[in-house]
Amino acid sequence: MSDQRDQEEARYEEYIRLFHRVILPRIKRAEKAYAQALTSLWIGNGAAALATLSFLGASSHQGQASRQLLWPLWFFVLGLVSMGIGTFASIVREARSARSMLKANASSILDVKAGDLRGPIETAGLTFDDWRTRMACLAALFFIGGCAAGLFILTRQW
Q: How many domains does the chain have?
Protein backbone atom coordinates (compact mmCIF):
# COMPACT_ATOMS: atom_id res chain seq x y z
CA MET A 1 0.00 0.00 0.00
CA SER A 2 2.86 2.36 0.82
CA ASP A 3 4.51 1.83 -2.58
CA GLN A 4 1.30 2.68 -4.38
CA ARG A 5 0.84 5.83 -2.30
CA ASP A 6 4.46 6.84 -2.91
CA GLN A 7 3.97 6.38 -6.66
CA GLU A 8 0.81 8.49 -6.60
CA GLU A 9 2.58 11.24 -4.68
CA ALA A 10 5.50 11.14 -7.11
CA ARG A 11 3.11 11.40 -10.09
CA TYR A 12 1.30 14.28 -8.44
CA GLU A 13 4.57 16.12 -7.72
CA GLU A 14 5.68 15.57 -11.33
CA TYR A 15 2.35 16.95 -12.55
CA ILE A 16 2.79 20.04 -10.36
CA ARG A 17 6.32 20.59 -11.71
CA LEU A 18 5.05 20.16 -15.29
CA PHE A 19 2.21 22.58 -14.61
CA HIS A 20 4.55 25.28 -13.29
CA ARG A 21 7.23 24.69 -15.93
CA VAL A 22 5.11 24.30 -19.09
CA ILE A 23 1.40 24.91 -18.66
CA LEU A 24 1.34 27.99 -16.44
CA PRO A 25 3.71 30.04 -18.67
CA ARG A 26 1.54 29.19 -21.70
CA ILE A 27 -1.60 30.29 -19.86
CA LYS A 28 0.11 33.56 -18.86
CA ARG A 29 1.09 34.21 -22.50
CA ALA A 30 -2.47 33.45 -23.59
CA GLU A 31 -3.82 35.81 -20.94
CA LYS A 32 -1.57 38.60 -22.23
CA ALA A 33 -2.61 37.91 -25.84
CA TYR A 34 -6.27 37.90 -24.78
CA ALA A 35 -5.92 41.29 -23.07
CA GLN A 36 -4.21 42.69 -26.17
CA ALA A 37 -6.96 41.30 -28.40
CA LEU A 38 -9.65 42.94 -26.26
CA THR A 39 -7.81 46.25 -26.36
CA SER A 40 -7.37 45.94 -30.13
CA LEU A 41 -11.07 45.31 -30.61
CA TRP A 42 -12.00 48.36 -28.54
CA ILE A 43 -9.52 50.56 -30.39
CA GLY A 44 -10.24 49.06 -33.82
CA ASN A 45 -14.01 49.40 -33.66
CA GLY A 46 -13.80 52.85 -32.08
CA ALA A 47 -11.25 54.21 -34.55
CA ALA A 48 -13.12 52.72 -37.50
CA ALA A 49 -16.39 54.27 -36.30
CA LEU A 50 -14.67 57.67 -35.96
CA ALA A 51 -13.05 57.33 -39.40
CA THR A 52 -16.42 56.45 -40.95
CA LEU A 53 -18.06 59.41 -39.21
CA SER A 54 -15.28 61.70 -40.43
CA PHE A 55 -15.66 60.42 -43.98
CA LEU A 56 -19.44 60.89 -43.79
CA GLY A 57 -18.99 64.43 -42.50
CA ALA A 58 -16.45 65.35 -45.15
CA SER A 59 -18.51 63.88 -47.98
CA SER A 60 -21.70 65.58 -46.76
CA HIS A 61 -20.00 69.01 -46.90
CA GLN A 62 -19.16 68.30 -50.53
CA GLY A 63 -22.74 67.24 -51.23
CA GLN A 64 -21.75 63.61 -51.86
CA ALA A 65 -22.94 61.97 -48.64
CA SER A 66 -23.82 58.35 -49.17
CA ARG A 67 -26.36 56.66 -46.94
CA GLN A 68 -24.63 53.40 -47.76
CA LEU A 69 -21.78 54.42 -45.46
CA LEU A 70 -24.15 53.97 -42.53
CA TRP A 71 -23.74 50.19 -42.94
CA PRO A 72 -20.08 50.05 -41.95
CA LEU A 73 -20.74 52.64 -39.24
CA TRP A 74 -23.44 50.43 -37.71
CA PHE A 75 -21.13 47.41 -37.82
CA PHE A 76 -18.42 49.30 -35.91
CA VAL A 77 -20.88 50.75 -33.39
CA LEU A 78 -22.37 47.30 -32.78
CA GLY A 79 -18.82 46.02 -32.24
CA LEU A 80 -18.32 48.67 -29.56
CA VAL A 81 -21.68 47.87 -27.98
CA SER A 82 -20.90 44.16 -27.85
CA MET A 83 -17.54 44.87 -26.18
CA GLY A 84 -19.36 47.04 -23.63
CA ILE A 85 -21.90 44.30 -22.93
CA GLY A 86 -19.13 41.74 -22.46
CA THR A 87 -17.23 43.98 -20.08
CA PHE A 88 -20.36 44.83 -18.10
CA ALA A 89 -21.37 41.15 -17.81
CA SER A 90 -17.87 40.23 -16.69
CA ILE A 91 -17.86 42.92 -13.99
CA VAL A 92 -21.30 41.81 -12.75
CA ARG A 93 -20.16 38.17 -12.59
CA GLU A 94 -17.03 39.05 -10.64
CA ALA A 95 -19.00 41.26 -8.23
CA ARG A 96 -21.56 38.51 -7.61
CA SER A 97 -18.82 35.98 -7.09
CA ALA A 98 -16.99 38.20 -4.58
CA ARG A 99 -20.25 39.02 -2.78
CA SER A 100 -21.14 35.33 -2.57
CA MET A 101 -17.74 34.48 -1.09
CA LEU A 102 -18.05 37.27 1.46
CA LYS A 103 -21.57 36.19 2.45
CA ALA A 104 -20.41 32.62 2.97
CA ASN A 105 -17.73 33.98 5.29
CA ALA A 106 -15.61 31.18 3.97
CA SER A 107 -13.20 29.87 6.54
CA SER A 108 -12.38 26.89 4.33
CA ILE A 109 -12.21 26.26 0.60
CA LEU A 110 -15.07 23.81 1.14
CA ASP A 111 -17.38 26.72 2.06
CA VAL A 112 -16.96 28.37 -1.36
CA LYS A 113 -19.37 27.54 -4.19
CA ALA A 114 -17.77 25.89 -7.21
CA GLY A 115 -19.35 28.44 -9.55
CA ASP A 116 -17.55 31.27 -7.76
CA LEU A 117 -14.10 29.87 -8.45
CA ARG A 118 -12.23 30.46 -11.69
CA GLY A 119 -9.37 28.35 -12.91
CA PRO A 120 -6.32 29.65 -14.76
CA ILE A 121 -7.85 28.86 -18.16
CA GLU A 122 -11.03 30.79 -17.33
CA THR A 123 -9.00 33.70 -15.98
CA ALA A 124 -7.01 33.85 -19.22
CA GLY A 125 -10.25 34.09 -21.21
CA LEU A 126 -9.82 30.76 -22.96
CA THR A 127 -13.40 29.62 -22.47
CA PHE A 128 -16.73 30.60 -23.95
CA ASP A 129 -18.31 30.59 -20.48
CA ASP A 130 -16.94 34.12 -20.12
CA TRP A 131 -19.18 36.82 -21.61
CA ARG A 132 -16.13 38.90 -22.52
CA THR A 133 -14.97 36.13 -24.83
CA ARG A 134 -18.37 35.67 -26.42
CA MET A 135 -18.86 39.37 -27.00
CA ALA A 136 -15.26 39.83 -28.20
CA CYS A 137 -15.87 37.19 -30.87
CA LEU A 138 -19.03 39.02 -31.89
CA ALA A 139 -17.16 42.35 -31.92
CA ALA A 140 -14.48 40.82 -34.15
CA LEU A 141 -17.17 39.67 -36.57
CA PHE A 142 -18.71 43.15 -36.54
CA PHE A 143 -15.29 44.68 -37.21
CA ILE A 144 -14.69 42.35 -40.14
CA GLY A 145 -18.22 43.04 -41.41
CA GLY A 146 -17.71 46.80 -41.15
CA CYS A 147 -14.39 46.65 -42.98
CA ALA A 148 -15.88 44.43 -45.70
CA ALA A 149 -18.94 46.66 -46.09
CA GLY A 150 -16.80 49.80 -46.27
CA LEU A 151 -14.45 48.24 -48.79
CA PHE A 152 -17.37 47.02 -50.88
CA ILE A 153 -18.99 50.48 -50.89
CA LEU A 154 -15.74 52.25 -51.79
CA THR A 155 -14.86 49.86 -54.62
CA ARG A 156 -18.39 50.12 -56.02
CA GLN A 157 -18.24 53.91 -56.11
CA TRP A 158 -14.95 54.05 -58.00
A: 1
The answer, yes or no, to whether residue 104 has pLDDT greater than 70, is no
CA neighbor of 90 nearest in space, from 48, 28, 34: 34
Q: What angle, 0 to 180 degrees and rounded to 10, lies between the N-to-C axes of helices 131-157 and 70-104?
A: 170
pLDDT of residue 156: 85
pTM of the model: 0.77
Query: Which residue range is the domain that position 9 belongs to?
Result: 2-157
